[in-house]
Write a structure and sequence with these properties.
Length: 503
């Protein structure tokens, strides 16, 4: 009765419009049942379109221009994105300009919000703890899995795998693990009182540009890496899928991430290019097509790290075994996510022994069972990401040099696989193949594959000084920090020191 009376008194004081809004808001929150969510995945449709906003200088904002995103499965206009045009980039330019070159925090800097710099490292570790815990909850995990499916159609298991890897990454950087990324070293000097110390140093204002095919995993891992090292990032995700990261940012804020530490922009390529030129970020991480990557490298005068598309090869050794398993892995590498992975199997070199097996028939059968109903195959969102051209070729023992020559002539060295457990082949050929190739993530052995970017190993290209990695402490330090050396030289001076002759 007391609660009913309190409700009636509140109702009498609240104007009708405000009361209607309050009821709508509360019922919406109950429907969403997640403290951070502003959308209901199942209700997003042409009649109830979702909205995606921008975040700049700690405030969520709309835009005078709304870009309509079509549902990739039925063509309905089901998401409205507040896109910034060239006239609206100034707040983002100003936001980046407020971040000094020495970053939001570093091993020496005392941020205004904290008394000691270590507290900011600890704060980010705590955010990772809470965000990982949130993603471990089935309700939250299912929310992001289904949201990924709505904008980048892939099977539930593939989308769930993306959420799982994101959670495991966050778990890896809980507690003290963030400050361990800033671990320094000391080297004895030439005399008493002299020591040189090496530190990992942030770039300060940075930008992150990521594609559509992994709308949660790629932007989240790179964003957190940038923050861990002390940078202030502006994040741009392909507008077709940016709703996923918008919701993830709201989750991070709910877990304690300061709202002013990250800016989030929706814009087309031309507008983003103008923002980069005017804001002049100290470093940009770009994941996407090689053509755009090369243009940005010129525009930004080399201040860029790239994880561009791969032309990814696989070599099957002479030992024909576990044909069912090898066929399944080849199908997953080629066609999972409809082949729209930068690590998708692009070329298969098959030892002649495999031509006598059922491998090719099984690969054909496995591909044929994929269907739209369960999203094991889906619509093509960007043609440039279709990296599997059905290239399967056969080689003989004496043709390994020709295979190596083909590998040498490829240009995008992301992932690779050498599939064999034959000890003679491995001893005689594996070292030769690996020693004469440069792919940054290379699997070897019977269970080797080309796809898969888990949180426990480096994922990224090699052979290019602009190459960016993802997932590991080494990747984070390489991409999001630089080396700084500080030499302490306190003396004392030698006794009876005198000014020497000029040299």
């Amino acid at each position: 009765m007391h609660r009913l009376q309190a409700f009636r008194e509140m109702r009498a004081r609240v104007p009708q419009k405000a009361f209607n809004w309050l009821v709508s808001f509360n019922s919406s929150r109950c429907i969403h049942s997640l403290p951070f969510a502003t959308v209901n995945v199942e209700e997003i449709s042409g009649s109830q379109p979702a909205e995606v906003h921008n975040l700049v200088q700690g405030k969520w904002t709309g835009s005078s221009k709304w870009n309509t995103i079509l549902d990739p499965l039925n063509g309905e206009s089901f998401i409205k994105v507040a896109e910034i045009d060239e006239t609206g980039i100034q707040p983002f330019v100003e936001s980046l300009s407020k971040c000094p070159k020495h970053g939001l925090h570093n091993p020496f800097k005392e941020p205004e919000r904290f008394v000691f710099p270590n507290l900011l490292y600890l704060m980010l570790g705590d955010v990772s703890v809470k965000a990982a815990h949130m993603l471990s909850q089935p309700k939250v995990s299912d929310f992001f899995t289904r949201l990924i499916q709505r904008v980048s159609p892939k099977s539930y298991q593939q989308a769930l795998g993306e959420v799982f890897v994101t959670r495991k990454f966050l778990e890896n950087f809980c507690g003290d693990q963030v400050r361990f990324l800033a671990r320094s070293f000391a080297v004895p000097g030439n005399h008493l009182g002299q020591q040189s110390h090496g530190f990992r140093w942030p770039y300060g204002p940075v930008t992150i540009i990521t594609p559509f095919n992994f709308p949660l995993e790629i932007p989240l891992l790179q964003l957190m890496g940038a923050l861990y090292m002390g940078n202030k990032p502006v994040l741009k995700v392909d507008s077709k899928v940016s709703i996923v990261m918008e919701q993830m940012l709201r989750l991070l804020h709910d877990c304690g991430l300061p709202v002013e530490d990250v800016d989030f922009i929706n814009a087309d390529g031309k507008t983003m290019n103008k923002l980069l030129l005017e804001a002049n970020p100290r470093m940009t991480l770009f994941t996407g097509s090689s053509r755009v990557a090369d243009k940005l490298a010129v525009d930004l005068k080399g201040r860029i790290k790239l994880e561009d598309a791969g032309f990814d090869w696989k070599i099957l050794g002479p030992d024909v075994k576990e044909v069912d398993y090898i066929a399944w892995v080849c199908d997953q590498d080629a066609y999972a996510c409809s082949g729209q992975k930068c690590s998708a199997q692009s070329m298969l070199f098959m030892h002649e022994n495999w031509s006598k097996s059922s491998l090719l028939r099984q690969m054909n059968d496995l591909a044929a069972r994929r269907k739209l109903e369960d999203l094991t195959v889906g619509p093509v969102l960007t043609v440039s990401f279709l990296t599997f051209f059905g290239v399967v070729t056969e080689y003989k023992d004496n043709q390994i040099p020709m295979v190596l020559d083909a590998l040498e002539r490829m240009h995008a060295h992301l992932t690779a696989a050498v599939v064999s457990n034959d000890q003679l082949f491995l001893q005689a050929r594996l070292a030769e193949v690996i020693g004469k190739s440069v792919n940054g993530t290379t699997y070897a052995g019977l269970r080797a594959r080309t796809t898969g970017a888990p949180q426990n190993h480096w994922f990224g290209p090699a052979g290019d000084p602009r190459g960016a990695g993802i997932g590991t402490p080494e990747a984070i330090k390489l991409v999001w920090s630089c080396h700084r050396e500080i030499i302490y030289d306190f003396g004392p001076l030698p006794q009876k020191w005198e000014t020497p002759a000029s040299t």
